[in-house]
Amino acid sequence: MDASHTIACLLYPDVMSLDVTGPMQVFASANVERQRQGLPAPYRLLLLGQRAGAIATSAGFQLVADRAWSEVDPAQLDTLLVPGGLGVEAQCVNAPLLAWLAAAEPRLRRLGSVCSGALILAAAGLLDGRRATTHWADVQTLRQGYPQVEVLGDCLHTYDPRDLQDNGHVFTSAGVTAGIDLALALVEADLGRPTALAVARRLVMFLRRPGGQAQFSALLSPEPSRVPRLSALLEWIPAHLSEDLSLQALAAQAAMTPRTLSRVFVQELGVGPGRYVERLRIEAARNLLQDAQASIATVARLTGFGHPENLRRTFHKHLGVSPQEYAARFA
């Protein structure tokens, strides 16, 4: 990618500032890395608003839109990002913006969202029939408000550079910092993995998390009191990670049938029991490894993975590194 490509991001009142500045800084840092190599900057960055000028973010400070989106020919843009924030609801009924996005979509190489910005794309009809994710707190809103969307509540982003027609062209990402992971994935697709890793190092990031990784720490799941049908079970599981936590065992503990338990988990938490338990076990294993409290074999046993190989496969699946590498970087 030798020619400059324009990366644009929308602004609107009460936008989440980090949804804008996080991804845009990734592209800016990619420019710096290429210039350090004596190569031209590949990206031109552009902020678009209802009109040019300062726009207040939800943090209270202002960002400045370079141009009005209505004055921009989408064909001149390479990638357009739609951020989330407290002002999303108003933009979901902003008819001129939704019409502009719908008209722009087929003319853009890539159209993506960060955090609750997915709700704006959904309101424009651009996620119908597509896989999409959003901030975990907005998953139910997306799922209930837009039944035509295939909502994935437990991933960081849906960008797939191998799928140029669907989720490689229109894609979404989860809450706040997941937009940075998305931007790194876009840089890797454009400029290669070495440049993406160099940018991650420049931003002091541990690694570029894969899009399928869980959005948030399992220990930050909703408080049991917020999911009354599961409260007793959610309090019980963390203390029994080394035991049998199969669907049948969990259903017996909760006094439900396996089918009912699976349905309640998806309704209340957006994930099935197996995925929830796996997240808890990964989080527990990470904490033990970070604190250098036990050997890999002991960590595997204490967290319910049994054999170190099971722990290794799960770490590679979700974190892209082995338990040994994770311990070496964090312990």
TrEMBL record:
Pfam families, per database record: DJ-1_PfpI, HTH_18
Under PROSITE patterns, the record lists: HTH_ARAC_FAMILY_2 (PS01124)
Q: What InterPro entries is this protein classified in?
A: Class_I_gatase-like, DJ-1/PfpI, Homeodomain-like_sf, HTH_AraC, INH-QAR
List, alphabetically, the Gene3D superfamilies matched: 3.40.50.880, Homeodomain-like
Matching SUPFAM superfamilies = Class I glutamine amidotransferase-like, Homeodomain-like
* Domain HTH araC/xylS-type residues, every copy: 231-329
Q: Which CDD domains match?
A: GATase1_AraC_1 (cd03137)
Q: Which UniProt keywords apply?
A: Transcription, Transcription regulation
This protein is called what?
Answer: GlxA family transcriptional regulator
- Source organism of this protein record: Pseudomonas zhanjiangensis
